[in-house]
Amino acid sequence: MTSVQAEETPASNTTNTAPTDKGKPAVHKTDYEKDVVYLYQFTRCPTLPSASPFCLKVETWLRMTEVRYENVDHKMKYKSKKGQLPFVEINGVEIADSDIIIKELSQIFGKDLDENLTLDQKNVSHAFVSMLNNHTSWVMRWWRYSHPGEFLKAAQLDIKRTLNSKLPKGLLQFFFKLGFKSNIKRAVGHGVGRHNSDEIYEFGKKDLKALSEYLAEKPYFFGEEPHLLDCVAFSHLCQFVYIPFGGLKEYLESDCTNLLSFVERMKERYWPDWEEMCKSLELNTHLPKKVEEPLKEEGEKKESKEVEEPTEEKNEKDDKAEKLDEKIETKEEEASEKPKEDSNETKE
Predict the structure, then answer these.
(1) Where is the composition biased (Basic and acidic residues) (predicted)?
(2) Direct distance between the N- and C-terminal alpha carbons of the chain, in angstroms, rounded to an integer
(3) Mean pLDDT of the 123-135 span
């Protein structure tokens, strides 16, 4: 069983999408609504909306730009044609990889979060985004690969629900840990995994410190309003805050408190349903609640049936009721007259 990782190795029970006869990629959502983005990602996590910074990045961007979207509950069955999660479908077309998703959707909807930045600011943003995606995230990945049991505990994940499997929990945990540990070689291949734990944690601290110093006292990285870097930084920082490891959350609390305030600021602004989502683990808490129309109609039919009875049947019931009332009245009269006669006889 392979591990569950965003934009790398998808769940073991996912399936590839075969191309159509016309040579165009097939999509899973065939009854799509025009210009609605359908997001495929991992299941919710009890401590934060997604344990994948890449999935969280895409969904945060969708919220920041107010683009209409819907999470698809695919039960961990699908992955993109690149073998990744997340991916999106829009108007019958698939887009994979979080950076490419954001780039293409920005062009489709005209929603460039960085359009008002200077050239220097855009270059700074690119450097920090690259650091977060390709260096900082590997510190987090290395820890998860090396400590799968601690990761499951810190994230409070239900392994059966996460993997959408009916296998016994103990067996799933065994395969999950085995799969995660087998990915350590990927961290080694990247380079970060060649170092010892103290050195790796130090890499993470330096990245966090660089972000903290650049943010300084500003509410967002480039001033009063958030941009793409804020979206990406928030998504990665949440992994350190809500699934803590290696003393890095403590480092944030002692040396980078402005980053914690930044996370809270983004959370309040773009994730008002955070608590509800983490509690219910529902994918679409941002959408209006659907009214159960069938139950309502059934109730109305029942009520209508009671009100609109057939006239003949109603008249027949009324006649029976009148006759019953007459019988009751007759008996009451007879009963009331009998005591009087008895009392008269007694007096005589």
Answers:
(1) 290-330, 336-348
(2) 107
(3) 98
